[in-house]
Amino acid sequence: MGKDLQSLSMKDLQNLKQQLDSALKHMRSRNNQLMYESIQCFRRR
């Protein structure tokens, strides 16, 4: 993949970084939600 990035412009790289940041934020949010739900489930037991 690194070789494929060489042909990208700075703007393309910035857009890619923004997309990756957004995806990571979404995954972390979902992970936090799942952990919270698991904790709530264990507390009910």
From TrEMBL:
GO terms for MF: DNA-binding transcription factor activity
Domain of life (superkingdom): Eukaryota
The K-box domain, residue ranges: 1-45
Leader sequence residues: none
Coiled coil: none
GO CC, alphabetical: nucleus
InterPro entries, alphabetized: TF_Kbox
PROSITE patterns per record: K_BOX
Protein name per UniProt: Putative transcription factor, K-box
Species annotation: Rosa chinensis
